[in-house]
From TrEMBL:
Coiled-coil residue spans: none
Membrane-traversing stretches: none
Domain Beta-lactamase-related: 61-400
Pfam families for this protein: Beta-lactamase, NamZ_C, NamZ_N
InterPro entries: Beta-lactam-related (IPR001466), Beta-lactam/transpept-like (IPR012338), NamZ (IPR008302), NamZ_C (IPR048503), NamZ_N (IPR048502)
Single annotated GO MF: peptidoglycan beta-N-acetylmuramidase activity
Organism ancestry: Bacteria, Bacillati, Bacillota, Limnochordia, Limnochordales
Highest taxon of the lineage: Bacteria
Gene3D superfamilies xrefs: 3.90.1150.140, DD-peptidase/beta-lactamase superfamily, Uncharacterised protein PF07075, DUF1343
Location of the Peptidoglycan beta-N-acetylmuramidase NamZ N-terminal domain: 450-652
Name recorded for this polypeptide: Uncharacterized protein
Chain ranges of the Peptidoglycan beta-N-acetylmuramidase NamZ C-terminal domain: 656-808
Species annotation: Limnochorda pilosa
C-alpha cells in the first residue's frame, strides 16, 4: 500500500461540523428480496434450520475426526455439510502439511483451514464425466457411439465397439490400471500405449473400476472439443460456477493452502505438495481424465449443489436437467451393481445411511477425499482428508467416511425418517444487499451509461456478479468496469500494480484504479453518466477499497457524474469503534480522511461521511441494505459464505484480528503473510514462542488466547525461514479489542526483544495508525494503557461526528 499524503480538514474542524445536519444530496432507494424460485445456493444455515436438527450428532463429527487424527489415519481434514444449500457444518481439523520426506514430524506444520485445497485424486472423474455430458448436449459426442469415432487409434485389439457409455460406467473391459508412467519415456508414448492397449474382458459384461477408461475419456474430451482438458474444465465448469480453487496444476502461490500428500522416491519426488500425487497423471504433465484436479470443500459443495439443482447454480447452467437425470440414473442394474455416468450410486461403504434413500450419489478419491449427495433430502456431505500424508500406508479411512455420513443422517432425522425439514428463514432474518435492493427498482440507472467499481466480492446473495447483473439488465447500459487494489479479479498481492484489461465475459474495458492512477481520469469517465461502487469492505481504514471509493467520488464530482453506493455489511460489526484517529498531515491512500482504525461503519455510511464532512459535493445516492443490524457479524447475516475480498483475507476470522495485527506491517515482525493464517500468525525468527505467549496471555486481554507456535512463510517477510511466535485464537469476538491486542503485541516485542525488534518502516507505520504518538510511545517503552489513553479524546470526538451518518439500528 503506497503512502502518498493528502491534506484534509483537521479533526478539530470536524467537531464543529458534526453539529450540522446531514447533506440533503444523499438519497436512498427501496428494498427487494432475491427471487424466491431460484434453486438453492450455499449460505449459512438459519436458526430456524438448525433448530430442526440433532445438533449433538453434528458435534459428534468433531470427535470422530479427532479420533482419526489420533490414530494417524490422516493428519487433517475438512468436513462440509449442507442441506438445500444451508451450510450446517464447515470445519477444518489438524494439519495440511506436517511430515518431512523421512516420514517424521517437521519442526513446523501447516494447519488445515476450511479453504484448504486438496489433490482430489479420482474425484477428478466427476468433472471429466461432466465435460463428456456437456459435449453430448452439444452434439459433439454420442454416448452409444464407439470411442474410436473420436479417437481412431483406440479402435484396435478388440476395442473397436467399446462405447463412450461403457467408459463412463467402467464396463469397457479395460484393465483397472497400468504403470505407464514408468513403462514409457514421455507423455506422447504413454498416451499411445494406452490407446493401443487390449481388453481384459468383453465390453459390457463386467464392472471393473478403471483409471485407464477415464484417462481415455479425458483424451476424448480434448479430441471432441478441440481444447486441452485442463482448459476445457476451467472454461466450461469451474469458471461458470465460480470455482476459484479448482484447477489442474495449481500455481506455487497456492501452496500455503494445499494439503501435502506423500513422499514418492520411486518417482523422484521427496514430498509431494501442490503437485498431483497420482503417478500416471503426473507423468502426463499433471492433466488427466482420471486424476489431477485440485479443489476445496466449498468448490466441491457448489459442484454438488449444481447437480442437486438439476445442472444450475446461481443462475449459471452447465447441464440440462435431463442430462443430470441420465447421469444419475442407474445404468447397470442389479447384475453389475448400481452406477451412473461417472457417479457411484447408493454405496453404503462410504455413504452410510444415505445409501438407503434411493437418491444418493457420490465418489471417493485415493488421497482421502469423498463426496456424497442425496437427491431425496437435498443433503451433501464432503469429507476431505490427506490420508496419504506422509505415506499411503496409513490405511483405510472408510469407517470415517461412513461415520460422518451416518452422523449427518442422524442429525437430519434421516435414520428412522426421510421427511425433510423446512429450510426457510423467518421473515427479516436474512440481510438483503444493496445490489438486490437496486435490482428491484433500477430506475436510478435507467437510460444512463454506467461504470461500476467492483471486485470478486461484488456479488448478490445468489453469487451473481454485479458486472453480470448490470450488463444483462435490459434497462441498464453498463459501459465500463473499474478495479481497485488487488485487481478486478482480486488476484494481486498487496501493493502490486494492476494494469488495464478487457473483461473476457462481457468485452467491457476494465480500468485499473491501482496502477498508473488511483483516481478515475477524464478519459476513463468519458461518456459515462454514473459511477456505481459495490465492494465488500472489512471495516478498517487502511483497507484501501474505501479510499478508492473516496477518490472516485471526488472524480465523479469533478466531472459531473452521479455516484451510487450499493451498501454491504461491515463484516466485523458496526458497534465497536477502536484505535487512534488519523491526524492532520497523516492522511494517505491507506487512510484517506480522519477516522480511527476500526470505524464501525458500512461503505454507504462512509460515503455519506466523506461527501458531507470533506466537501466532496458529489451527487450521491446510497442504496441501503434491508434488515442489517449493527451488532451482526458477517456470518450472522444469512448472506453467501465468505468471498475473499483480497488474497490475504481468507476468512472472517482474519478480518476480526486484522485491525490490530496489520500494524505489524511496519515492523520486522511477520504478520503471517505467506501462510494460510495471515494476520492470525505473528512472530519472527528471534522470538521465543513460549515466552511471547506467556507474556501476552498474562496481560489478561478479554476474548483472546495467544498460542505459542512456529510457521514458515512462503513469501513476504522471512520466506522459507522458521518463524516463532503466536497464533491469536479469538474466544469471544464481542469482547475482543483487536487494536488493543495489536498494541500489546508491539509493546511485548519492544520489552522482550529491545535489541532485535524494530519499527523498520516508521513512515508506513505512522500512516497505518494515523498518529505518530503510537510509534513514539512504543519506541520509548510506554505501556499499552498509556498509548491507548492518548487517543481517547479524538476517538470520542469522532464518535459524535460518526453518529450523524449512521443508517442502521444497533441490534
Amino acid at each position: 500500500m503506497s503512502a502518498q499524503r493528502r491534506r484534509v480538514r483537521p479533526l478539530s474542524a470536524l467537531i464543529v461540523l458534526g453539529i450540522l445536519l446531514l447533506s440533503a444530496k444523499a438519497t436512498r432507494t427501496g428494498s427487494a428480496e432475491s427471487p424466491a424460485d431460484l434453486p438453492p445456493v450455499l449460505r449459512p444455515a438459519s436458526r430456524a434450520t438448525l433448530n430442526t436438527l440433532d445438533l449433538d450428532a453434528l458435534e459428534d463429527i468433531d470427535a470422530l475426526i479427532a479420533d482419526g487424527i489420533r490414530q494417524a489415519k490422516f493428519p487433517g481434514a475438512v468436513v462440509l455439510v449442507a442441506r438445500d444449500g444451508a451450510v450446517l457444518k464447515w470445519e477444518a481439523y489438524g494439519d495440511a502439511y506436517t511430515y518431512g520426506p523421512d516420514g517424521e514430524p517437521m519442526a513446523w506444520s501447516l494447519p488445515m483451514t476450511r479453504n484448504s485445497v486438496f489433490d482430489l485424486a479420482s474425484l477428478t472423474k466427476l468433472f471429466t464425466a461432466t465435460a463428456v455430458m456437456q459435449l453430448v448436449e452439444r452434439g459433439k459426442v454420442d454416448l452409444d457411439a464407439p470411442v474410436a469415432t473420436y479417437l481412431p487409434t483406440f479402435g484396435s485389439r478388440g476395442k473397436e465397439e467399446v462405447t463412450v457409455r461403457q467408459l463412463l460406467t467402467h464396463t469397457s473391459g479395460l484393465p483397472a490400471w497400468a504403470p505407464f508412467y514408468k513403462d514409457q519415456p514421455d507423455p506422447e508414448a504413454r498416451i499411445r500405449s494406452l490407446l493401443e492397449a487390449g481388453l481384459e474382458s468383453d465390453p459390457g459384461t463386467k464392472y471393473v473400476y478403471s483409471d485407464l477408461g477415464f484417462v481415455t475419456l479425458g483424451l476424448l474430451v480434448e479430441a471432441a472439443s478441440g481444447q486441452p482438458l485442463d482448459r476445457y474444465v476451467a472454461e466450461h465448469i469451474a469458471e461458470p460456477l465460480g470455482l476459484r480453487q479448482t484447477r489442474y496444476n495449481p500455481p506455487s502461490e497456492w501452496r500455503p493452502w494445499i494439503a501435502a500428500t506423500e513422499a514418492q522416491p520411486w518417482t523422484g519426488r521427496p514430498m509431494i505438495w501442490g503437485e498431483v500425487h497420482d503417478e500416471n497423471a503426473w507423468s502426463l504433465s499433471g492433466v488427466s481424465g482420471h486424476a489431477g484436479l485440485f479443489s476445496s470443500a466449498r468448490d466441491l459443495a457448489v459442484f454438488l449443489q449444481t447437480l442437486l439443482n438439476g445442472g444450475t447454480y446461481a443462475g449459471r447452467r452447465i447441464l440440462q436437467p435431463a442430462t443430470v437425470e441420465e447421469m444419475l440414473r442407474d445404468q447397470l442394474g442389479s447384475e453389475l451393481g448400481p452406477h451412473g455416468l461417472g457417479w457411484e450410486l447408493s454405496e453404503p461403504w462410504y455413504m452410510g445411511a444415505f445409501a438407503d434413500t434411493g437418491g444418493a450419489f457420490g465418489h471417493t478419491g485415493y488421497t482421502g477425499t469423498s463426496v456424497v449427495a442425496d437427491r431425496s433430502t437435498g443433503t451433501l456431505v464432503i469429507v476431505l482428508t490427506n490420508r496419504v500424508h506422509p505415506t499411503r500406508e496409513n490405511g483405510s479411512i472408510n469407517p470415517w467416511r461412513r461415520g460422518v455420513a451416518d452422523l449427518v443422517a442422524r442429525a437430519a432425522g434421516l435414520i428412522g425418517s426421510l421427511r425433510r425439514p423446512q429450510e426457510e428463514a423467518p421473515e427479516g432474518e436474512i440481510v438483503t444487499l444493496g445490489i438486490d435492493v437496486l435490482l428491484e427498482d433500477p430506475s436510478i440507472l435507467k437510460g444512463k451509461r454506467v461504470g461500476v467499481i467492483t471486485n470478486p466480492t461484488g456479488i448478490n446473495r445468489v453469487f451473481r456478479s454485479v458486472v453480470d447483473l448490470l450488463h444483462e439488465h435490459p434497462d441498464i447500459d453498463l459501459a465500463a468496469v473499474f478495479g481497485p487494489e488487488h485487481g478486478f479479479r482480486g488476484a494481486e498481492q498487496a501493493g502490486a500494480r494492476v494494469g488495464d484489461q478487457t473483461d473476457p465475459v462481457t468485452g467491457l474495458p476494465v480500468y485499473s484504479l491501482y496502477g498508473e492512477t488511483r483516481k478515475p481520469t477524464a478519459e476513463m469517465l468519458e461518456g459515462l453518466d454514473v459511477l456505481v461502487f459495490d465492494i465488500q469492505d472489512v471495516g478498517v481504514h487502511f483497507y484501501t477499497y474505501v479510499s478508492t471509493m473516496a477518490y472516485a467520488m471526488e472524480a465523479a464530482a469533478e466531472h459531473g457524474l452521479e455516484f451510487v453506493v450499493l451498501d454491504r455489511p461491515n463484516p466485523i460489526g458496526g458497534l465497536d469503534v477502536q484505535g487512534p484517529v488519523i491526524q492532520e498531515g497523516y492522511t494517505s491512500f491507506i487512510g484517506v480522511y480522519p477516522m480511527p482504525i476500526r470505524h464501525g461503519m458500512t461503505v454507504g455510511e462512509l460515503a455519506w461521511y466523506f461527501n458531507d464532512a470533506f466537501d466532496i459535493d458529489a451527487e450521491l445516492t446510497v442504496v441501503p441494505m434491508k434488515s442489517w443490524r449493527r451488532g451482526e457479524w458477517y456470518d450472522q447475516t444469512g448472506l453467501p459464505t465468505w468471498v475473499m475480498p483480497s488474497p490475504n483475507m481468507p476468512t472472517l476470522d482474519t478480518a476480526i484480528v486484522y485491525p490490530g495485527t496489520a500494524l505489524l506491517e511496519g515492523t520486522n515482525l511477520s504478520e503471517g503473510r505467506g501462510t494460510t493464517r495471515p494476520f492470525e500468525l505473528i512472530g519472527a525468527p528471534f522470538v521465543d514462542a513460549e515466552a511471547f505467549a506467556r507474556y501476552l496471555n498474562g496481560r489478561g486481554l478479554p476474548g483472546v488466547v495467544f498460542r505459542p507456535t512456529s510457521f514458515t512463510p512462503t513469501f513476504s517477510k522471512y520466506p522459507g525461514e522458521v518463524v516463532h511466535g503466536v497464533q491469536l485464537h479469538v474466544t469471544d469476538r464481542d469482547r475482543f479489542d483487536p487494536v488493543r491486542a495489536g498494541i500489546e503485541i508491539l509493546v511485548a516485542a519492544r520489552r522482550l526483544y529491545p535489541d532485535r525488534f524494530q519499527i523498520d518502516r516508521p513512515e508506513h507505520f505512522d500512516l497505518l495508525t494515523g498518529d505518530p504518538s503510537v510509534r513514539l510511545g512504543i519506541e520509548n517503552g510506554a505501556s499499552a494503557d498509556i498509548i491507548e489513553a492518548a487517543w481517547q479524546r479524538d476517538l470520542e470526538a469522532f464518535k459524535q461526528i460518526r453518529d450523524r451518518y449512521l443508517i442502521y439500528q444497533d441490534r
